[in-house]
Amino acid sequence: MFRLCLLAAGAAAISTDAIVDDAETLRSALSHLKLDVRASELARLKEAPNLVKLLATARDDPHTLAAQLAASPLAAIAREVAPPTNTRDVTGALPIVTAHGMGDSCFNAGMKSVTAAAGKRVGAYAVCVPTADTTVGDTIDGFLKNMDRSVDAFAERVRKDPKLKNGFNALGLSQGNNVIRGYIAKYNDPPVRTFLSICGCNAGVAAWPQCSPAGKLIGPVCRALAEVLGDLAYLKVVQDILFQANYYRDPLRLKDDAYLSNSRLAHWNGESHANATWRANFLRTEKFVWVEGTRDTVVFPRDGEHWAAPDPADPWKGVQPMKQTAWYTSDAFGLRTADDQGKHAFESFAGQHIDFTDEELFGWLDKYFT
Ligand SMILES: *[C@@H]1O[C@H](CO)[C@@H](O)[C@H](O)[C@H]1NC(C)=O
């Protein structure tokens, strides 16, 4: 397994003028995102011309950026699920909230069908909660609205929906699970009762192998990630911008100051310090269902979907099972206590990333949401 960050980014050398231009573009693109950026960090972004270009595209031509995200090899777009024939009509079933993956949006046919089918199967109100009002905005947010800001936007919408006020069950696909997990840690009011995490990257990803299957980077999004998810990954500015940088967990940098101080995932998983509030919120959820695709090549290592971590002794080959990981033994965010309380369930399906069958989905819904 090679790491994307070891590859040459393939970015053409840029002239001094272009750097100045890019810095200006960047400054205005960042002001558009409403971020405060230190000058020294802004300068470092000169090393990331492809990211700067995508930031400019977000500002000037968001439709194009949304299309690039949806077409990128990183995209995890739900396919359409057929409405279940076998349904329940129960009053009082808990509502369901769904959250989508990278490149996808609540307004796409796949997420609409997953959400409608889940609600129909269980006999409950079901809603996909976006972080923006349009397909384009919601798609771009899965890239340029970092995990914390996405969680805040998600929480605001959840709290505005009166049907959710007594709590709900949550179903996430791919990185949508980071949004739900962040909501659980930081808000959980109204509470998530059962969290069904399908192919989630809450344990992080150590590499993006699908970006360069034959050693060649595919498309503008992968080129941008390749240059950013190396030395720059744990700069504050990069963590403030990029959702994928937030869950990129380089197994060789886990002791670095930059990782421990700035990585959102390190904070959430208690690798730098434990947060008692987040831990207490996590433990208010009654059931966690962690679903792994046994042929998933998008989340690396895929065992992370079950909270395993790359083995520090041999990060590219071996994994530590959940119970051996530091985030479990330290219990920094409640993973071990939740286990002691019998809250974890582990499921798997023989398929690629989020490529479960309708029957598998309905099986999990019947088992955990009714
Ligand atoms: C802990 O969580 C609280 C509540 O979300 C937050 O305000 C605070 O910044 C967090 N502290 C740290 C050190 O992460």
The ligands found in this model are: 2-acetamido-2-deoxy-beta-D-glucopyranose
Mean pLDDT: 90
Q: Note the run of SSEs as H and E.
A: HHHHEHEHHEHEHHHHHHEEEHHEH
Task: Name the CATH architecture of the largest domain.
Answer: 3-Layer(aba) Sandwich
Q: Indicate the CATH class of the largest domain.
A: Alpha Beta
| Beta-strand content | 5-15%
| H/I helix tally | 17
Strand order of the largest sheet: 2-1-3-4-5-8
Roughly what percent helix?
Answer: 40-55%
CATH fold field value of the largest domain = Rossmann fold
CATH superfamily of the largest domain: Alpha/Beta hydrolase fold, catalytic domain
Q: Which assembly state applies to the chains in this document?
A: single chain
> How many discrete domains?
2
Biggest sheet architecture: 6 strands, parallel
Low-confidence stretches: 1-20
Q: How far is the first residue's CA from the last residue's CA?
A: 41 Å
Overall outline: globular
- Number of E-state strands: 8
